[in-house]
Amino acid sequence: MSVWVVLGLAVGLALDCFSVAIATGIGLQRLRVAHALKMAVFFGGFQAVMPVIGWLAGISLRASIAAYDHWVAFVLLTAIGVKMIWETRAEKKMATLNPENTGLLLLLAIGTSIDALVVGVSLSFLDVSIVIPVLIIGAVTFVLTLAGAYIGGRIGHWFEGRIEILGGVVMILIGMKILANHFFGRGL
Predict the structure, then answer these.
(1) Type and span of the H or E element at 140
(2) What is the domain extent for residue 157?
(3) Count of domains forming the chain
(4) Going by C-beta distance under 8 Å and a sequence separation of 6 or more, which residues neighbour residue 177?
(5) pLDDT band, very low/low/confident/very high, at 95 (cuts 50, 70, 90)
(6) Residue ranges of the alpha helices (H) in 63-130?
(7) Which of 22, 48, 79, 163 would disulfide-bridge 138, Cβ 3.0–4.6 Å?
(8) What pLDDT is recorded for position 158?
């Protein structure tokens, strides 16, 4: 799997966290560096751990679905992408996250990383090592969460819905690339 595909996956997955961080930056009157770092560690950490869990689960299923694993990866990634795009249509009133509320931060980190779990399952079907993708996904999420917190404090609501659409499109394109690679024999 090429680094560019992994970066695309990482950015696509991190955009939910980026949106939450923007909303948090908007809602807090004064965002401290410690708050932004705590969010980045939680979101980046969970975005890195969940694909490993999904990958391990997928490894156990791989032998039984080897004949159509490319279709499973395509459907899972496309479903994530469509879900991300669809969710931008719903009116969301996101409660402002107080980074000092560790329980809420933990729930949001888990909630925003469920997609990463599914991506981990897809990666196991492609028979790729999980180490490099997990490191890249965690690092990209960490950086985008930090950036989102600071952007939210400065720019406001402009990015919120638009960024999730981009993440959905990226997921769908990667799913299509996996399917095309299967049929046309090109490596990722």
Answers:
(1) helix 131-154
(2) 3-184
(3) 1
(4) 5, 188
(5) very low
(6) 69-87, 102-112, 114-125
(7) 48
(8) 57
